Amino acid sequence: MTEAQTYSVFAGERLLLAGPLAEMLRATKQYIDERERQGADPSVLIFEDETGRQVDFDFRGTVEQVLAHAVRPPRVGPGRPRLGVVGREVSLLPRHWEWLEGEPGGASAALRRLVDEARKRNPAQQRVRQAIDATYRFMTALAGDRPGYEEATRALYAGDGERFATLIAAWPTDVVRHIERLAHDCFTAPPAAAQAGQSPESSPLAERPG
User: Against a cut of 0.85, is the pTM above it?
Assistant: First the structure.
């Protein structure tokens, strides 16, 4: 997580604040401390605006300690962190590993090349897909039990902006406004570009709250 990223903080379905990392952490820490002094519920949900992912931070201690914890490099296992390289598990079939290991530079270099090449192809379609994924993640977290959620999700992946707007219109105001902001690029391309993303039923992003 970097300072360039922005975050939005919700208390229930109400947007408390939004901003870059340090600014958001200071304001959220102040809110949590004040709520605890009042004996009120200090719970918040924090979302990364670029991806729509819900993220967690440790708000124990002083503001300085909170900031220090947030910028500490994550422990992700083997890799070369000084070069920005991290190691994570990848599961492939034997034939995939055999092909990758035969590529120049080995499996890791081949995977990096494949990812870079995929990112360069059709950037407009990639932008639409990323916006759809971010919108879907946030919707699932804060509106997964709302009337019309399933239909809105289908409209989102079908690129039907008019139906999508109609279906979410009755949801809480702050939730709708944030969804509209995340979905800004979702309907800027022909439906075929939106449908190039996986449907929510088959997507690994389809993580419904239990």
Answer: no
